[in-house]
Amino acid sequence: MSEKSGHRVTVLMRCKNSDWVMGHALAGLFSQDFKDFELLVIDSGSTDRSLELLSHYPHRLIEIAPEDYYPGKVLNMGMKASKSKIVVFQNSDGVPLAPNTLSRLVAAFDDANVDAAFCRQLPRPEADNWVRRDYEVSFPDKRKTPRWITLSLPMAAMRRSAWEAHPFYSDAWGSEDTEWGQWAKDNNMTIAYVPDSLIMHSHNYTLKQLYGRRFIEGEADAFIYARNESLPKAVIKMVGSIAKNWFTCFRDGDFLDMLSTPARSTIFHWAYLRGHWHGERRIATNNTDTSVGQRTVLSRHDSNLDDKASAE
């Protein structure tokens, strides 16, 4: 395993039980036309073939216990362990879709004003229709994303100097990319969206998994935006969301998804509200314990569901 520090770029990959796709992610990375990188992987307790797949490629490996996985802390650990002036973040379930995905992303930093950059994400072939619609809005083929996408780390890059100015936060368990992106926006820093740098990444969340994901997003937003959320506001958003999705489903002839829309929208907004209230209470009481969010999302995550299944 190489510990060479002279590379222009370090690719930082977080991993746990990703063997169902990690082979494609690694093959895509090492097939890039940009070669001046090292791979640094932080694994949080894989029990599948992930590390075996990784062993076929040059890399450095940091192993941590599953219970020590907190995204902001782990990313800061990786940044400290890397040496390059530009660090690329690639999820172990993110697959570069073209040989120039990495070169197009890194080329954004030819502009000295760019502090960070992120790729356009395309959904997997098996993605549900509602996921496809979400990605079309969130990651368009034009050079601007909607306001709620400030930064997205499934594949992104950052100058070391920008990270040194503001390391990833750890007040809440999730949304470390959103928090960093909002901080950058508030401080007049530049984040480039690179729509011709393509990666495949999406999740068909079950309702249980969607609850966990939205809970941590709600908790994080309480810290990021310092605002309160109420049940009436959540109900208004939920009703509006159902109506909007029904219209889209009817327009597209997706009548099957019309049936699942009410349950999904209810979970989407209720879990966010519960998480936001939890974050508000933490702020009010100066509670620094982030373990509730960690348990809520990881107990529902695919990598841990696999562990539970193998133990039964």
Please describe what this structure looks like.
The protein has 312 residues and is α/β, with parallel strands linked by helices. It has 2 domains: 9-200, Spore Coat Polysaccharide Biosynthesis Protein SpsA, Chain A (Alpha-Beta Complex); 207-311, no CATH class. Helices cover 47% and strands 16% of the residues. It contains 12 helices and 8 strands. It has helices spanning 22-30, 50-54, 71-81, 101-107, 129-138, 160-165, 176-186, 207-225, 231-252, 255-284, 291-298, 302-311; strands at residues 9-15, 37-43, 60-63, 86-90, 95-96, 114-122, 155-159, 190-200. The protein has an 8-stranded mixed beta sheet with strand order 3-2-1-4-7-6-8-5, with helices on both faces. Helix 1 (22-30) links the parallel strand 1 and strand 2. Helix 8 crosses helix 10 and helix 8 (207-225) runs antiparallel to helix 11. It is globular and about 55 Å long. 42% of the residues are buried.
